[in-house]
Amino acid sequence: MDFAAVLDRLATFFEERRQPYAVVGGVALAAYGILRTTLDLDLAVDRAVQDDAISFMAAAGYETLYRSEGYSNHLHSDPDLGRVDFVYLRGETSQTFFAAVRRVPGPRGRLVPVPSPEHLAAMKIQAMRDDPSRTWQEMADVRALVERADVDRAAVRESFARCGLLERWNELARTL
């Protein structure tokens, strides 16, 4: 997948509409210097743009694989355009999330909006709660985020508690 080319197209779409967006998932981790294999581009956007985003993806030749209130997944037959997943945020969560977005160098040095490390960790923690089979992969990512000097560990701990996974935090904290 040509992450930079796909991101450029999507950034143009959201920026022309003055809609906030942020790169999440593996590409966001890479922007923070945490490398792992990823085969798709994940974006967080406000729930208000869901219909427009899905229409844009269809017009660009993407097939919608799944759609719910909180997520949609899109696949293009051209491997260079690959798979794009959206996470839809709303209300106070959306406002808080986008208020903390940072711009950091991403694919080909392009400045990309990414969530704060604490919000990225919170997304990983929610993924563990929603799909326990992802626990070990997500814990490795959370660990790498928590090891950063600029991370508010108390905020990450609170995310574990909110998701009912405080014991996972305790396991991680013992090894830090």
Task: Compose a concise summary of this entry.
The chain has 176 residues and is of the alpha+beta class. It has helices at residues 3-16, 25-31, 50-59, 91-99, 117-130, 135-146, 153-162, 166-175, and strands at residues 21-24, 40-46, 62-67, 71-76, 83-89, 102-105, 111-114. The protein folds into two domains: 1-115, Beta Polymerase, domain 2 (2-Layer Sandwich); 116-176.
List its traits.
176 residues; alpha+beta; 2 domains; two-stranded antiparallel sheet; 8 helices; 22% strand
Written account of the structure:
By secondary structure, the protein is of the alpha+beta class. It has 2 domains: 1-115, Beta Polymerase, domain 2, CATH 3.30.460; 116-176. 49% of the residues lie in helices and 22% in strands. The protein has 8 helices and 7 strands. It has helices at residues 3-16, 25-31, 50-59, 91-99, 117-130, 135-146, 153-162, 166-175; strands at 21-24, 40-46, 62-67, 71-76, 83-89, 102-105, 111-114. A 5-stranded mixed sheet has the order 1-2-5-4-3. A hairpin with a 3-residue loop joins strand 3 (62-67) and strand 4 (71-76). Helix 5 (117-130) runs antiparallel to helix 6 (135-146) and helix 5 runs parallel beside helix 7. It is globular, with a radius of gyration of 16 Å. The N and C termini lie far apart (35 Å). The mean pLDDT is 95.
